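stage 2 :: seqdesign
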């Protein structure tokens, strides 16, 4: 993800951003694939940042955060509509 979420949390380049769709790295067939995913800490930075404060809708594909972490993020932004989409696939 090249630290996109962490960098977005520090950005002031998108003052009119209202909706964000983000798809997490989902190459689950690879060993240690989670190491290439965005950390909970980066999402926490984003959810509490000024850069994300005007966002009203977040579509999140394949988050690797736990259910408890998702609830914590929602508590940080109770006004934010969050749509979580989880897909799975496997090579046989």
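stage 2 :: out
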């Amino acid at each position: 993800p090249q630290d996109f979420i962490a960098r977005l949390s520090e950005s002031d380049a998108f003052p009119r951003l209202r909706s964000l769709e983000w798809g997490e790295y989902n190459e689950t067939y690879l060993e240690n694939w989670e190491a290439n995913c965005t950390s909970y800490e980066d999402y926490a930075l984003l959810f509490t940042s000024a850069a994300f404060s005007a966002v009203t809708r977040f579509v999140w594909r394949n988050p690797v955060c736990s259910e408890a972490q998702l609830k914590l993020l929602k508590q940080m932004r109770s006004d934010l509509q969050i749509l979580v989409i989880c897909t799975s696939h496997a090579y046989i």
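stage 3 :: structure notes
- The two ends are 26 Å apart (CA to CA).
- The longest strand covers residues 19-23.
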